[in-house]
Amino acid sequence: MFESILVSSAELSVARVLIHIGVALIAGAIISLSYIISNKGRKYSSNFAVTLVILPIIVSVVITLIGSDIAKAVSLGGVFALVRFRSVPGDSKDIAYVFFTMVTGLAVGVECFAVAFILALVVSFFFAILTRLGYANSQKENKILKITIPENLDYQGVFDDIFDEYLIKHIISNVKTTNMGTLFQITYDIVEKDNINEKEFIDKLRARNGNLNILIGREAQGELPPL
Fold this sequence. Notes:
Elements (H helix, E strand, L loop, with lengths): L1 H4 L8 H25 L7 H20 L3 H12 L3 H4 L4 H18 L3 H20 L9 E9 L9 H7 E12 L4 E10 L5 H12 L4 E4 L10
Antiparallel strand pairs: 1-3, 1-4, 2-3
Helix pairs in contact: 2-3, 2-6, 2-7, 3-6, 6-7
């Protein structure tokens, strides 16, 4: 059974595996560098950048060990299932990078080195260029607004007049209780108007919510700190 899955030791040499690892390492470094460049000036995961270097090596070695086409298909199904670990946050670009690195590792594993390098260089180039040029970015930036209010304050409509003055759009995305149920934490998806005074906006919200915690960010920042 194992003979049908793994290549024979005569076909698999240490030198061959090391060559695959070296090529995959270079290709992965190119992909990781394009990820860093495309996210320059933005928040990105350093752990994910390292993963992009390592993942093609893992895939290429897996493919190197596979001997039959059927086993190769089964192994690829298992490898692509690893995408699950990136699908939870919901960042489609990161998921695309994972697929990209896996395909590059596959090309290295089947010894299509030219294809692997062309793929790594060309796709990395377009990833970096399109991201840096802001292709398909919306003109208005979506932000997250979190406001803590006392439990006796009706959050529905309480800030509408302030929102109308400073925001283009506001939608309640989440409501939860905190501090043993004595406070509410409301999360809004918002789009600000041009050239607003954000401090003035926050000050008016603070006057309305009893000077409790307020958070504005470009993405979810986790829980508000305890009072």
